[in-house]
Amino acid sequence: MATETATTAEVAGNTEDTPAVTYAARVEHVSKSFPAPGTSGGQQLVLDDITLDVAPGEFVTLLGASGCGKSTLLNLVAGLDRPTAGSIGTDGRPALMFQEHALFPWLTAGKNVELALRLRGVAKAERRQEAERLLDLVRLQGAYGKRVHELSGGMRQRVALARALAQESRLLLMDEPFAALDAITRDVLHDELTRIWRETGLSVLFVTHNVREAVRLAQRVVLLSSRPGRIARQWTVGLPHPRRLEDTAVAELSVEITEELRGEIRRHGRH
Amino acid sequence: MAGTDNGVDVETGIKSGITGDSAPAVAKPQDANDLAGLEAGLDALDSVHVARTSLRETLLRKTLPPVIAVALVLVLWQLLVWAEVAPEYKLASPSDVWGEAREAWFQGTLLDYIWTSVSRGLLGFLMALAIGTPLGLLVARVGFVRAAIGPILSGLQSLPSVAWVPPAVIWLGLNDSMMYAVILLGAVPSVANGLVAGIDQIPPLFLRAGRTLGATGLREAWHIVMPGALPGYLAGLKQGWAFSWRSLMAAEIIASSPDLGVGLGQLLENGRNNSSMAQVFLAILLILLVGIAIDLLIFSPLERRVLRGRGLLVTR
């Protein structure tokens, strides 16, 4: 497998020729090593033989403790880094949201969204209206002219979501996007994200270390083990939306997954 | 994993606090309006409102202190003159300098002196901008160029540009192009280095975010790198102007020729030749005033605007 060469994502342009894309993201036997710190030439295996499909319109959460390589996997899918082995295919270039809002402070909220539109090639005349529509979608009607520092943490992440949606990708990658928010705001944004996901039919690959968040949002929870990251177990979450953190069914599944996660973590204490 | 567990606990804790009185049956799925209302409430609670200070307060806190400082210096100066610490030909009094300025004003030469130098300085600075900016971008973004000329560029900053006056006179003669050459050699490294420092300080997250949005190559430079580096770039411009102005004064003092017209540097040198201490003082004051005025009228407002727009201006 180590001899396999990494082939990169299909670019948006040539998806027309290959109409039968049955996935939003396809990760096949992907491994990733980084140079190990402190050794010369030594390699540290971060991801080991990951195979994972995200179906069109599916909401998948990647769950794992620190060091499981979940952010690394997301970067690979985003095309910001290349796998050491295996291949990754996506249906067009994915949009990516970070834990930090990553909005550009020299632009207003609206102009941040417009920049994504502009880089996508949307004509100047349509940008403003489209940006307003997207801000509307995340319920930030009056925020077009606001500077980033004038917005609260939750509002910034919603602008970041609007900017990601402006890319018109079929796949949205989210790297712990709500981890830095307070509990109340996070809970509201869970509802908001669920609503937008259902309205737009996007595929979402959502990375988190919060079990309840994973269960609350996803159709499928993928648990990664740590060092190296492997797929330990998967759960299909069949609960109807809208869900609440307090729902008994959410709580029960969370307990089960937490037990599994703790088991994975305990393994590391033994050596 | 304690962190996660805590997170969950805190969350449910707050939840039960909110829904506590509305009884055991936890409010089931909120409808869309409810969520919108909740969100609007959160937004209103969390938003930051930045108030700007009033004109009166600005005058009181920003203008008054320097006026007092200048007044004190003038008083001290006059006291030293009255105490006759130095003979008159060495220490001109404030009123002598004022008289010199009035005379030049009524002869119509005062503004000529200033304009000769300022127009040279600004034109030279604009040329330095046009050369230093692409140079800085290249040094910051192209590894080979940085390795090749980065250290030289930083080193050039510490070379007093007055050192370039003699070779510039020999190569180009006593004319305006020699002045501009000296200005460029003084200011281009500052402009370029400022831009390099600004680019190096862009958070890597912005570059990653830009790349996921599809900004690469020149589009990345224009939409992400240049605006991201603007604060550092502006600092470089400010220093570049200071270096332009200094180099120009050095060039004007050293290289005087009737063809060149009288700028502030020549005014100073003429004052020395005429043994007119009042004229020397006047020239020095004017050089200082132009430096302050350009900073106050151009660079400070620009810098404040950029920093305020990004929420980086801390009001003290």
From TrEMBL, chain A:
Keywords: ATP-binding, Nucleotide-binding, Transport. SUPFAM superfamilies: P-loop containing nucleoside triphosphate hydrolases. The keyword Mitochondrion does not apply. GO terms for molecular function: ATP binding; ATP hydrolysis activity. InterPro entries: AAA+_ATPase (IPR003593), ABC_transporter-like_ATP-bd (IPR003439), ABC_transporter-like_CS (IPR017871), ABC_transporter_ATP-bind (IPR050166), P-loop_NTPase (IPR027417). The keyword Transport applies. PROSITE patterns: ABC_TRANSPORTER_1, ABC_TRANSPORTER_2. Residues 25-253 form the ABC transporter domain. Pfam families: ABC_tran (PF00005). Gene3D superfamilies: P-loop containing nucleotide triphosphate hydrolases. This is ABC transporter ATP-binding protein. The lineage of its organism: Bacteria, Bacillati, Actinomycetota, Actinomycetes, Kitasatosporales.
UniProtKB/TrEMBL annotation, chain B:
Keywords: Cell membrane, Membrane, Transmembrane, Transmembrane helix, Transport. One of its GO terms (biological process) is transmembrane transport. Its main location: membrane. The chain crosses the membrane at residues 64-83, 121-140, 152-172, 178-199, 280-300. Residues 114-298 form the ABC transmembrane type-1 domain. It is a multi-pass membrane protein. It is found in: Cell membrane. The keyword Membrane applies. GO terms for cellular component: plasma membrane. Belongs to the binding-protein-dependent transport system permease family. This is Sulfate ABC transporter permease. It comes from Streptomyces poonensis.
